[in-house]
């Protein structure tokens, strides 16, 4: 992918890339190349000058996903969800009841709390923000939080148009971390 600030600069950048490919006996298949486009679908994401967002084709798939009725269906849904977790604030917290059903002795169907989380997670994906590209010249903010069972963080940057998320991250607390006092968990986050 070649990003440029202007059309003129883009022509120069593409020319440079193609020259270097040619100089090293490397080839780009023309049918797989896109030139002078403002966004591109790439590995399940849409990359544009605005930032990174989920591929719109995935939204309908998420909306139509039925509640998992067995372990394999739950693993399939969580595998899909984990791929896009970078778009969801406090993701680990939002899947805590669902992941409890991954244990060997769990029984299906999902309980009320897990079903609620399943539907809330589907909603969160369909309203996921565009993640801005990191700009080293802008002020950067790291916000962290800890709950009784998960840690979360948001990396954002501030521009003239406001605060924009760059990335979200979260994880469940490890068994040893569950016993920590709140202040220690917040420091860990």
Automatic annotation (TrEMBL):
UniProt cross-references to SUPFAM superfamilies, sorted A to Z: DNA/RNA polymerases
Gene3D superfamilies in the cross-refs: 3.30.70.270
Record-annotated Reverse transcriptase/retrotransposon-derived protein RNase H-like domain positions: 111-189
Domain of life: Eukaryota
Keyword Transport appears in the UniProt entry: no
GO terms assigned for molecular function: catalytic activity
Alphabetized UniProt keyword annotations: Multifunctional enzyme
One Pfam match: RT_RNaseH_2
Keyword Cell cycle part of the UniProt annotation: no
Protein name: Reverse transcriptase/retrotransposon-derived protein RNase H-like domain-containing protein
Organism: Austropuccinia psidii MF-1
């Amino acid at each position: 992918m070649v990003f440029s600030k202007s059309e003129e600069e883009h022509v120069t950048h593409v020319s440079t890339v193609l020259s270097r490919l040619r100089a090293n006996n490397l080839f780009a298949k023309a049918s797989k190349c896109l030139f002078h486009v403002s966004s591109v679908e790439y590995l399940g994401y849409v990359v544009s000058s605005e930032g990174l967002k989920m591929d719109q084709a995935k939204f309908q798939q998420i909306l139509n996903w039925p509640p998992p009725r067995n372990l394999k269906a739950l693993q399939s849904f969580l595998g899909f969800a984990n791929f896009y977790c970078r778009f969801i604030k406090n993701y680990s917290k939002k899947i805590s009841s669902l992941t409890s059903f991954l244990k060997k002795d769990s029984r299906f169907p999902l309980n009320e709390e897990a079903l609620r989380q399943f539907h809330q997670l589907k909603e969160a994906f369909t309203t996921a923000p565009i993640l801005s590209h990191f700009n080293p010249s802008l002020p950067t903010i790291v916000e962290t939080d800890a709950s009784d069972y998960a840690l979360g963080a948001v990396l954002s940057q501030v521009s003239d148009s406001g605060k924009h998320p760059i990335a979200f991250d979260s994880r469940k607390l490890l068994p040893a971390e569950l016993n920590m006092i709140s202040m220690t968990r917040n420091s860990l986050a």
